[in-house]
Amino acid sequence: MQDVTSRRASAPYNQHYDPVADKSIGSGSDYAPTYWIGTAGTPPADDGPVTSDMDVDVVVIGSGYTGLSCALHLAKEFGIKAHVLEAHGVAYGCSTRNGGQAQISTGRLKRSQWIERWGLDVAKGMHAEVVEAFDLFRNLIKDHNIDCDPQDGGHYYVAHRDWMMPKLESEAALLRDTFGYGARILSRSEIHADVLRDEEARGAMWEPDGVGIHAAKLAFGYQKIARELGAKVHVDSPVIEWTTKNGVHHLRTPGGTVRARAVAVATAAYAPRGLHKRTRDRLLPIMSNSITTRVLTESELEACGFKTRSPITDTRTLRHYYRLLPDNRVQIGSRAAITGKDAANPKHLAALREGLARKFPALRGIDLDYSWWGWVDVSHDMMPRITSMPGVPNAFYSLGYGGNGVMYSAQAGRRMAQLVAGREADIPQLPIFRDELPHEGWKTPFRRLGQWGLYQLYHLQDERA
């Protein structure tokens, strides 16, 4: 196995990249300046760029959590040694720009919304799927000794207004009584005494499953395992043309064409619209901003009342996700710009700083060590799909987690590996495995006008007394 420990000269990081507006993702870019990349240490060895034409069994497009999990499980469970193609460095996109929060969910819908959409039996099947997924996620970290700083202790949904508490109480009761899952409600005084002193918190719902992880270390851990099992990971190798001839996929990269019998797409929000007609406009990429403070002093830690390092999410539609990191920095993120062109507008950073200060007044004006943003793969119906691509032989994708992919991507990669290996019978008969992502076609760029209007409405709704 060839080990490549340094990439070719990188292009500057493009902070304005926009998957809807830009025709190509480019190649060889520096990473976004995230806390995770800044503190992960040297990335593990990869297999370098594609440098010539080659024939392979399976190609995985995208080297984030899903793509690496797919490659890992193809090798581990089926003896198939995939070639992973990545446009930049390993885990360049969502997998090193998220908040590092693993929750027992996938997509944007709650259990009550699963019941409304699909009925109780399917909702229970979906719940069983995410429970199994969390077990897989934990076991991957434990069994392979992935040093990703796991902080296990459940997940808190914090009610940011009094009127959110009845909704949380109803959802917690549904989880307990219908799904047999041990969610419970905490009052404002319990949150302040036992969890943290978030001044906005009116109470919270606690879920037993929630783990904070170091996002880049998790991805690099998956990469190391996949390569040890025989997978190849080719960086700086974007797919710039995809054609299929006589059942063989021809994936052209700057360094050569890779011919494969099967292709698995795991690009999340970072696939250019021209990658393939079956993936075009099946997502609306949504931007999320994140900041990490300097290390807190003892007095600041005391003022904020941190007694947990578990993942925390508030109940805004334009939610904040936040937690205390193992090195006593605070990370917080939320939705931000609509377009890549507006990504660096200082008002988005100011809004996130204000969100932090409302929760923790002692941190108003605190120095920041890191600030970044990235694209979230939100599907048009708010749920992911792990499925085949109709009319395209032996081609599959796993997309659309809507910001809840840190945990479920491990299982999604495994499910896609089962599809590639022809083991559909091993996959439960659930909607996320049966149907394609909804397609919006030419409307996608124009949906941003509606997105802007919805953001104004959501803000007014979120902040009402």
What does this protein look like?
The protein is an alpha+beta fold and 465 residues long. The chain has a domain at 152-210 and 285-376: 2-Layer Sandwich (D-Amino Acid Oxidase, Chain A, domain 2), CATH 3.30.9.10. 31% of the residues lie in helices and 22% in strands. It has helices spanning 35-39, 65-78, 111-118, 120-143, 165-177, 188-194, 215-228, 298-304, 346-359, 405-420, 431-434, 444-462, and strands spanning 54-61, 83-85, 101-103, 151-152, 155-159, 184-187, 203-207, 210-212, 232-234, 241-245, 248-253, 256-265, 283-293, 312-314, 321-324, 330-335, 368-379, 385-388, 395-399. Strands 1, 2, 9, 10, 11, 12, 18 and 19 form an 8-stranded mixed beta sheet that branches. The protein has an 8-stranded mixed beta sheet with strand order 6-7-5-14-15-16-13-17, with helices on both faces. Strands 3-8-4 form a 3-stranded antiparallel beta sheet. Helix 2 (65-78) packs parallel to helix 7 and helix 2 packs across helix 10 (405-420). The radius of gyration is 21 Å and the shape is globular. It starts with 34 loop residues before the first helix and ends with a helix. The mean pLDDT is 95.
